[in-house]
Amino acid sequence: MRFTEGEIREIIHLARQKGETPNLRGCDLSGLGLYKADLSGANLCEADLTEVNLSQANLRQVQLHKATMSQAHLSMADLQGANLREANLFAADLNSADLRGADLRGAHLHGANLHNADLQDADLRGTQYDGYTRWPVGFDPGQARGIFSV
């Protein structure tokens, strides 16, 4: 299902008014501008977030299991405790993102920019990356049990 930026913000607002978790599982949010949006705790599993702008967004505890986030703009986003298992983050911009405690097991990070990202306590086991993936200075993805692949 495809939504506009305004519709997404309204769905989130109404769910929170009712005390519910916003559920956007499997939705198409590709290309939307959700700069600084508060999607904390939302269910975005299997959603299409290709080229979405979530820079500086609050994505704490968000569920992004198997989400497609190719070329997404997530710079300075708060992804603390987020579930990004098996997410496709091909060429995603995660520069200066807060990924403390995030679950990235099995995520695809080919060409992703994680420069200056905070990866403290992030689970990167089985994460796939390549020679174009940019890591924080001094970070060793192999030591974090990531898998180099081409």
In the sheet with the most strands, the strands line up as 1-2
- How far apart the termini lie comes to 33 Å
User: Which CATH architecture is right?
Assistant: 3 Solenoid
The low-confidence runs, each spanning 5 or more residues with pLDDT under 50, are none
Structural account:
This protein has one helix at residues 5-17; strands at residues 128-129, 147-148. By secondary structure, the chain is mostly loops. The protein has a single domain (1-150), classed as Pectate Lyase C-like. Strands 1-2 form a two-stranded parallel sheet. It is globular, with a radius of gyration of 14 Å.
Note the topology.
Blueprint: H1 5-17, E1 128-129, E2 147-148
Parallel strand pairs: 1-2
What distinguishing features does this structure have?
two-stranded parallel sheet; Pectate Lyase C-like; 150 residues; little secondary structure; 3% strand
Describe the structure concisely for a colleague.
The protein has 150 residues and is largely without helices or strands. The model has no long low-confidence stretch (mean pLDDT 97). The protein contains 1 helix and 2 strands; from the N terminus they run H-E-E.
